[in-house]
């Protein structure tokens, strides 16, 4: 079982001026937003959203990591587990605060060309590209029937 | 019957549903707001948003920040597991004219938007000399 933070999507603007209850619905939406928003602040908890994709040549891991210096991001593959580590330093006037964030994704060693793993950080999103090993790529074998 | 319809206005409206105004779902981003004597400092975490996808507007006592992710999933990619949402980020902060709108400065870097909101002159703390 995995617990994932629920992104509360709001449909603002679609219900206004349509029913006499829209004002009440709007207030209740706001109440839930303020209650759920403070409950699980993404940054202090040290967890960040991660997406997994694949195409026929690579597996991709994308992580939402806004506001991190490239030098503070560490990506390493140890024993079949990909660890993404990041330190977010924030300055509040004279105080400096530092949050550690990390996530691990298990990656079967046999399926990945570990020497060719690359990572790019753009607009606050880290994309790690793991090329698949030749032997594990799906290959079509045509069998002649006698 | 007419008494009932006058009491509950929705009964007189036609049964056909009014076409809802098209607006995509939005997600509220994580943000930090702190205050100093001079103004407010706002940091909004908008991963995946570049300058062209960002809109920042200040009107009628509210500041609205809308951010759209710049990245589109390529055709060949299949999503195996998703935790982030494709929805746009939207944040509305009402300030009731406590902020000097002309002096707002904003900077977007690495998916974090930092906005400096100076307080309106009338609201800055001032010492009053006693004669």
Provide a descriptive summary of the structure in words.
Chain A contains 2 helices and 8 strands, in the order βααβββββββ. Chain A is an alpha+beta fold. Helices cover 15% and strands 38% of the residues of chain A. Chain A has a 4-stranded antiparallel sheet, with no helix packed on it. With 131 residues, chain B is mostly beta strands. Chain B has a single domain (22-122), classed as Immunoglobulin-like. Chain B has 1 helix and 9 strands; from the N terminus they run αβββββββββ. Chain B has one helix at residues 2-7; strands at 26-27, 30-35, 39-45, 49-59, 62-69, 78-81, 88-94, 105-109, 112-118. Chain B has a 4-stranded mixed sheet with strand order 1-7-5-4, with no helix packed on it. In chain B, strands 2-3-9-8 form a 4-stranded antiparallel sheet, with no helix packed on it. Chain B is flat, with a radius of gyration of 22 Å. Chain B starts with a helix and ends in a 13-residue tail after the last strand. In chain B, 18% of the residues are buried. The mean pLDDT of chain B is 82. Chains A and B meet through strand 1, strand 2 and strand 3 of A and strand 1, strand 2 and strand 6 of B.
